[in-house]
# Entry
Amino acid sequence: MDFSWTEEQVAIKEKMVAFAQKTLSDDVIQRDLSGEFARDLWSKCADFGIHALSVPSQYGGAEEEVDILTAMLAMEGLGYGCRDNGLTFGLNAQMWTVQLPIVQFGTEVQKRKFLPGLLDGTLIGAHALSEPEAGSDLFNLQMTAKKVDGGYLLNGTKCLVTFAPIADLALILANVNPELGKWGITAFLVERDTEGYTAGPVKSKMGLRTVPFGEILLEDCLVPESNRLGTEGSGFSLINHSLEYERCCILASQLGAMQRQLEEALDFAKERVQFGQTIGKFQSVSNRIVDMKLRLETSRLLLYKVAWLKKMEKPAMLEAALLKLHLSECFLDSSLDAIRTFGGGGYLSDWGIERDLRDAIGGTLYAGTSDIQRNIVAKLLGL
Ligand SMILES: Cc1cc2nc3c(=O)[nH]c(=O)nc-3n(C[C@H](O)[C@H](O)[C@H](O)COP(=O)(O)OP(=O)(O)OC[C@H]3O[C@@H](n4cnc5c(N)ncnc54)[C@H](O)[C@@H]3O)c2cc1C
# Structure
């Protein structure tokens, strides 16, 4: 097997790291404390072309189109250079769960209408699937879409939605015929200024605090037929398709964050002296750092393998679930090991170490909890 990257791929990653280090990591500790989304940084990311990585060039994507494997390397570089995990999570959420479904399931008119604004940073998109009664049991969604003259009347509530409070556009899943169960699920592109659309306030949360998150309430919200994404009843396959991509792509930036976290823990262990020697010489500390390295490398192999499978247009449901499970749990474990390595300072907000732990927990929940990933793998193994 050849694991080497071309010079062009390495250059794309290095450019991303340099951009992120220079532009995106300024006052993240303060913004995390105040729960503030940096719209100006979002625009800078758009200008740099990050959003465009998930979209073909004819719809405004990167001029020199990159394949998914290269895009993952670039997003890893982003996570390495940018200390704001909320911002990188928000970017990934929009790129893989809003833009990509529009590219893959949208009409020509929908692509031309929505993609330019999403790519240039003027529009923010949310993917709204979860509901109070439909979390892990996502096909049990209660939001209805009744066919009427002029389109569909949508009614129901979406919760725990990334970007909900500020999104200009929401990809919303609703059921056109609850009697059909999951075969009635249909996707819609709902614009914020549509009558009957209400965005809830920003919900306070433990991590990923720099990206807003909340509810979307739809009450007799008339969505034109031209904003239906895909055919009636195609929401089930759209969700499966987009979850597979999401599980493949959404954590690439966390891998970069794990690399940075490891390097910082290593530097600290080589410098901090206690009992007359650097703490890295204590085996209990070095063992932790070896574990961090092992988690990083195994996560990396899984990420590249899944991205390669998608590049080859092969199914990767099982591998994507394994990747999502492994990488998210590894980031969580390594974030705790990083705090242990830094000692009491690691617990202080202004050292910037503890934030990763709070951010990492989100990764074990969104796009299907770790329990759900295990269920998927077990089922695909025939259990
Ligand atoms: C940071 C963050 C961002 C998110 N962004 C979005 C978004 O943009 N759009 C969106 O639609 N949603 C989003 N979500 C919601 C997320 O997808 C759900 O929280 C998740 O699917 C779990 O659903 P739930 O919270 O209702 O938990 P529940 O489904 O109620 O689960 C509660 C517990 O029961 C376990 N459980 C449930 N069913 C099973 C089972 N069959 N087998 C084993 N264990 C089970 C779960 O693993 C969990 O431990 C986000 C969540 C977070 C934390």
In short: Residues 308 and 314 are 9 Å apart (CA to CA).
